[in-house]
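Appendix B, example 12.
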Amino acid sequence: MPKVRARRTIENLYRRFGFSLIAGVDEVGRGCLAGPVLAGAVILRADRHIPGLADSKLLTPEQRDALYLRITADALAWAVGAADPREIERDNIHRASLHAMARAVTALAPQPDLVLVDAFRIEGLRMAQHGIIGGDRRSAAIAAASIVAKVTRDRLMDDLHRTDSRYGFDRHKGYATAAHLAAVAAHGYSEAHRRSFRPATLFDTLD
């Protein structure tokens, strides 16, 4: 497990102020060339500790999968929300990410009375919220949400690979690796690609 583990200190502080249903929210996939941006929202039980929670980027795939099973089994509530490539193209990646996070929160049952968000403030939520810089490394609930989002999105990208294996989505999950850029140069964009995300290395090839 990583040395930097997310703790419940922030959640416990807010519980002393009277909040009881505290959700962590995080998203994954903002910087990808393909696939959705996907958000997770998790309400952890105060009386049920899940050891090893950490920012999903600090975990191996095997660690993420094991923690995903534990989170989805032990959390009081969890949900995901997504924004597809067309919505990202229409609204821009920042607004699409906020929409995905709002969808994840509104899908929770029960609804939280406080939402902890990694860095951003989510527009349109009716409950209290607090943005925490580096929240996925500081808050157990946000770390749990980051793991749920990452595992869910990785599985969606694996499904896309099974539908169209030309791009290697199962390996890079839509990020701009050299192999992914070479596949786009060879085959052009697919329906899963965000056409406005155009690395400089592709400008001459695709124009």
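Residues 140-163 form the longest helix (24 residues). Residues 203-207 have pLDDT under 50 and may be disordered.
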